[in-house]
Amino acid sequence: MKTFAHKKQQLYLILSGIFVVNALLAEIIGVKIFSVDALLGLPGNLTAGVLIWPVVFITTDIINEYFGREGVLRVSFLTVGLILYSFLVILATTKLPPAAFWLDVNKTDHDGRPFNIDFAYQSIFRQGLGIIIGSVVAFMVGQVLDATVFQALRRVTGSRLIWLRATGSTLISQLVDSFVVLFVAFYLFGNWTFQQVLSVANTNYWYKFAAAILLTPVLYLAHFLIDRYLGQEETTELQQEAAADVSV
After folding, report:
1. What CA–CA distances, in Å, run from 13 to 16, 71, 102?
2. Helices (DSSP H) in the chain: which residue ranges?
3. What global pTM score does this model have?
């Protein structure tokens, strides 16, 4: 039979894995800006990375609930390190000389138009390097703010109103994150106007706002499954430790 310590360790490992992979994917695919109007008939544009970002902040809230602010910051710092490592590797690959046959077999697109696949590769991933600088800054500011606000609301609500501390912390932290990441990545290091930054940041934030509200049932479902997995008495103990910011 699994001990409580083992279950606790496994839970943190699973939640951390979900957190890391979605945060890393969001950084890599965030280079693409797509039209919400063309997709859904609604005004505005979104970064592709924002689509899976709700998974990150729901996981953040669950980790905070069971492992406290220190648990959130620990996996956040780990994620930043892995993101930086990933993009250093990607940067290194953009410096590699392309093989002649690779350029030749990819010299035209499907419509027969001239196409430089190495230029396309470098354009996408080197633009992502600008995004990563903004993302890392915004990510850490957002995570620290989210974890801090969550615990502040927890002191007020106790074990009640999970939705309030989860949604409240997310809405406050993402208000900062949504602007900072675009301002640094595309205004300071890119070629966007400040008005374009505000426009996309506004759409990104309201998407996150809606997602935070709509995914509240998922948050409660996750709590239900975790409580069953750990056991009621053990769950209460773990939440009390998290509220006191006891390390994992």
Report:
1. 5, 11, 40
2. 4-29, 36-40, 53-94, 100-105, 117-157, 162-182, 194-214, 216-230, 232-243
3. 0.81
